Amino acid sequence: MRPSALAPTLLALQKRLEHEFSNPRLLVQALTHRSFSSDHNERIEFLGDSVLNLAVAGLLYEQLSELPEGDLSRVRANLVKQDTLHQLAVSLGLPDLLRLGEGEAKSGGQKRPSILADALEAVIGAVYLDAGFDVASGLVRRLFKGVEINAQMPAIGKDPKTELQEWLQGRKMNLPIYRVVGTQGAAHKQTFDVECEIAEYRRAERGIGGSRRAGEQAAATAMLAFVKTL
After folding, report:
1. Both 143 and 205 in a single domain?
2. pLDDT digits over 138-152, tens only?
3. DSSP character for 101?
4. Does the pLDDT at position 3 exceed 60?
5. What pLDDT shows up at residue 19?
6. Is the pLDDT of residue 34 over 60?
7. What is the domain count for the chain?
8. Higher pLDDT residue, 2 or 101?
9. Averaged pLDDT for residues 153-175
């Protein structure tokens, strides 16, 4: 696909992103939900999640230079939570650009915060694949330019993934690894079976949720129950 072959709506999105794709197929894939096609955005979203976290970590390291590691993790968790990513996705106009299967579209997938947050991460991942980390990091910084960042941001109720991460960091251990090990159900009513592994303990726990994020939180909850018995 040539860049000039993109639909006008995607050309307009490129302008909002301030990035013109050398490989525009990446942008199309980033906006494709698994209910629409097997060539969907979940792998790129997985990559974008890591790029987002690293870019935000670098931003906080610069802006909150006196803050210790645990507090930096707290602020980052607040910034990359689903609600924030959903709002940023809406500001970019992603709801009208998502490619959804008929069932998902009829059930309101265009407005579903989890789908929009995942799509935003996929777009970040697509920019990374198209142009590298520096360009993707620049996009993240532009996106968060209008988001309030301060050292007093609350811990957003310490969701299980954040609590587990802080528990491990406090013991100088590696972060957990999350994997989707299975899915069930129709595309618009799918459940995700997710595994959370801590390599040092050679231990994995699993959780199930209505989205990949929810499955990760459920798996983190199970892992927290284990580590708190040690």
Report:
1. no
2. 999 999 998 888 777
3. -
4. no
5. 96
6. yes
7. 2
8. 101
9. 79
For residue 149, what pLDDT is reported? 83
Alpha-carbon distance of 198 to 213, in angstroms, equals 18
Which one of 106, 124, 157 terminates a domain? 157
Q: What is the DSSP letter of 139?
A: H
Please, what is the Cα angle at 181 between 79 and 200, to 5 degrees?
70
Which residue is associated with the tokens 């310490």? 158
Query: Side by side, which strands form the sheet with 203-209?
Result: 177-184, 191-198, 203-209
What is the domain-level CATH number for residue 72?
1.10.1520.10
My answer on whether 105 and 146 are in the same domain is yes
**Stronger pLDDT, 72 or 196, i.e. the higher one:** 196
Residues catalogued as catalytic: 49, 121
**52 with 77: CB under 8 angstroms?**
no
Q: Are residues 23 and 115 in the same domain?
A: yes
For the domain that residue 195 is a member of, what is the CATH number?
3.30.160.20
- Last-in-domain residue among 135, 157, 179: 157
Residues 168 and 146 in one domain: no
Q: What is each CA distance from 51 to 12, 121, 140, 158, 161, in whole angstroms?
A: 23, 8, 9, 22, 18
Q: What value does the mean pLDDT of the chain take?
A: 89
Q: Checking DSSP bridges between strand 177-184 and strand 191-198, what pairing results, if any?
A: antiparallel
